[in-house]
Design a protein that fits this description.
Mean pLDDT: 81
Number of helices: 7
Radius of gyration: 25 Å
Largest sheet: none
Structural class: mainly alpha
Number of domains: 1
Order of helices and strands: HHHHHHH
Strand content: under 5%
Low-confidence stretches: 26-32
Number of strands: 0
């Protein structure tokens, strides 16, 4: 065998060994990751937004906001639609959110269970003036984007409230128009 053939076969077999396991993944247990252009967040910060989504629209007999990836929608909206100053304010608010809630309620949001988190966010809604402006901004934006995400999700528009296209099923485009004077 010559050297070129050996090198070529080694390259092909190593590429096959690298790609072969990918053929058997089903992808169900993997999270969806989105490339963010402007935001630099950690996994814990992404989980915080997911935890807030669990409280705002919890999972019942229908999927909740987290299962429908509302927290990913929030990150994409902040990354793509907010200006630089608002993004910085959002990130600052996200990083001070847990401490602001701890000051307000005496508990950490991350360490609380779902019922306690619900009570904490209700307390935040009632006493928004006692929380830092950035943390309040973070919460209001996150809540709005989570609700927007849920209401525009495929699940909501097909299973909860069926979306009907305009002009609707009774539209008849070919109907004769009677001559009438405009006077």
């Amino acid at each position: 065998m010559n050297r070129r053939t050996v090198i070529k076969q080694i390259a092909i077999s190593s590429a096959a060994a690298f790609l072969f396991p990918a053929c058997f993944r089903d992808g169900k247990d993997q999270q969806t990751y989105v490339k963010l252009n402007n935001l630099k967040i950690t996994g814990a910060e992404k989980d915080l937004i997911g935890d807030i989504a669990d409280v705002i629209i919890p999972e019942t007999d229908t999927p909740g906001a987290r299962k429908l990836e509302g927290h990913v929608f929030v990150l994409v909206m902040v990354d793509d639609c907010l200006g630089k100053e608002d993004q910085e304010k959002y990130i600052t608010g996200m990083r001070s959110f847990d401490e602001s809630l701890r000051t307000l309620t005496g508990k950490s949001f991350q360490e609380a269970n779902l019922e306690q988190r619900t009570e904490m966010l209700n307390e935040l809604e009632k006493n928004a003036d006692k929380v830092s402006g950035e943390a309040n901004y973070f919460y209001r934006r996150t809540r709005g984007y989570i609700i927007q995400s849920y209401l525009s999700s495929q699940h909501f528009l097909t299973a909860v409230k069926e979306y009907k296209l305009v002009p609707g099923p009774n539209f008849k485009g070919c109907v004769p128009v009677k001559n009438q004077s405009l006077a």
